[in-house]
Design brief:
This protein is of the alpha+beta class. The chain folds into two domains: 8-181 and 345-381, Gcn5-related N-acetyltransferase (GNAT) (Aminopeptidase, 3-Layer(aba) Sandwich), CATH 3.40.630; 186-325, Aminopeptidase (3-Layer(aba) Sandwich). 37% of the residues lie in helices and 24% in strands. It is built from eleven helices and 15 strands. It has helices at residues 21-28, 41-49, 93-101, 132-149, 162-170, 191-196, 200-215, 230-247, 255-264, 307-322, 356-381, and strands spanning 8-13, 59-61, 63-68, 73-77, 79-82, 109-112, 125-126, 154-160, 174-184, 219-223, 269-276, 279-288, 292-300, 327-329, 343-353. The strands form two sheets. It has an eleven-stranded mixed beta sheet. The chain has a four-stranded antiparallel beta sheet with strand order 1-3-4-7, with helices on both faces. The longest helix is centred in the last third of the chain and has 26 residues, at 356-381. The radius of gyration is 22 Å and the shape is globular.
């Protein structure tokens, strides 16, 4: 920090109730975050207040704060103590098993993340200004110190921004790459403009899928703000529980989470609901930032041809085009997204391993994994549905 910089103290709190919302958002929603609603005080506190995070789910909040003597919050890290590796979407189960076979204790660990949410963004929240770099550096070093002082095996910053990833790496953290699928708006005026950018065969396939949904007689609604009612959340929670129960066994989000989300962030919600003869049969939950629509949860109670693709992918593209958004982030996994215009992109995570021998082993693994991930993304791009320049 500059010589005339104020003294910044670091402390940990176990609830966002101890943090002023405006101050948190001044750091979390700085320009680099592009209004990412998942980083906001309202979203993270909704997880707390609904008991979606806490002792029941094994995500114990331990937010790291950087403050000056006058009480101004200059930086923060969403940090959780975890006794498992569930709900993260970046898998380290193999690391845990290897360390414990060698006689180590992998859990508890510290996780800097948005719980149950593989949405990329900053993990070092910092108020813009001349002290920002120094605050970031201090928070990184403090996370490593907390782990070392408390017998914690490791700290993991998952789905961080590339800028954070680079800064973590400069402090000796191990760097990992992953992939997601994002759709980018090339200035399309309509969905048909997007289709025109695709190869003929891909364009026809998407049209057939959308026509099949229409033949099912389904009514599709995009709901936001005051349009969201308790009955919509009741229906969507049933979808969420059905999908979550089949995929994860024990869904994390409670019913009250959706009520809180609807009361505090309704203007950021885009809820796609499908109805058959007035019955809600499926839906997809999205949140929107300044320039991005973030697809999150999906579920259905009846089987309808191509409803998943319509609700999750095509409706999101429709919304992004009509509202001038630049990107739709469709989350992790699913190579089928490529044929629907969602192309693979890199994601970033950084890892601090306390034990030197274990650290070397993970480092060696990541040195092999990173080029493999890059090669895989390059190979997947060959399946892009977009027209080549010669077509």
């Amino acid at each position: 920090m500059p010589d005339d910089s104020p003294t910044v103290g670091l402390r940990v709190v176990d609830s966002l109730s101890a943090v002023d919302a405006a101050q948190w958002d001044a750091c979390a929603l700085a320009p680099a975050a592009a209004g990412n609603p998942f980083l906001s005080h309202a979203f993270l506190k909704a997880l707390e207040d609904s008991k979606s995070v806490g002792r029941r789910t094994g995500w114990q909040p331990q937010y790291l704060l950087a403050e000056t003597d006058d009480g101004t919050l200059h930086g923060a890290v969403p940090l959780y103590v975890k006794g498992h590796s569930q709900g993260e979407y970046i898998f380290d189960h193999g690391w845990a098993q290897a360390f414990e076979r060698a006689g180590g204790r992998y859990y508890p660990k510290l996780q800097s993340a948005i719980p149950f949410t593989p949405v990329p963004g900053p993990r070092l929240f910092v108020r813009p200004g001349p002290y920002a770099d120094g605050v970031c550096d201090a928070m990184i070093d403090m996370m490593a110190k907390i782990a070392g002082d408390n017998g914690i095996s490791s700290v993991h910053a998952t789905f961080c921004s590339e800028a954070d990833w680079t800064r973590f790496g400069a402090h000796g953290w191990l760097q990992r790459l992953g992939r997601q699928y994002h759709w980018n708006n090339a200035g399309y005026g309509t969905f048909d403009d997007f289709l025109a950018a695709l190869a003929s065969r891909k364009r026809k396939a998407i049209r057939k899928e959308r026509e099949a949904v229409k033949r099912e007689g389904l009514a599709i609604h995009q709901l936001s703000g005051d349009d969201l009612k308790a009955r919509h959340w009741d229906a969507f929670y049933a979808f969420y529980m059905d999908t979550g129960g089949r995929k994860w066994g024990s869904p994390y989000l409670t019913r009250s989470f959706f009520d809180i989300l609807g009361s505090t962030l309704a203007d950021k919600v885009v809820l796609v609901m499908a109805e058959a003869d007035g019955r809600a049969v499926g839906g997809a939950l999205n949140l929107k930032g300044d320039d991005t629509l973030y697809g999150r949860y999906w579920g259905c109670l009846e089987s309808h041809a191509f409803l998943h693709f319509e609700a999750c992918y095509y409706q999101a593209i429709d919304y992004a085009i009509s509202h001038g958004l630049q990107r739709v982030e469709a989350g992790a996994q699913g190579d089928h997204k490529i044929q629907r215009g969602y192309l693979p992109v890199k994601t970033y995570s950084a890892h601090w391993i306390v034990d030197p021998s274990f650290r070397r082993a993970v480092d060696n693994f990541l040195k092999q994994e990173r080029p493999a991930v890059e090669h895989e993304i390059e190979g997947l791009m060959a399946y892009s549905p977009f027209r080549k320049e010669t077509e």
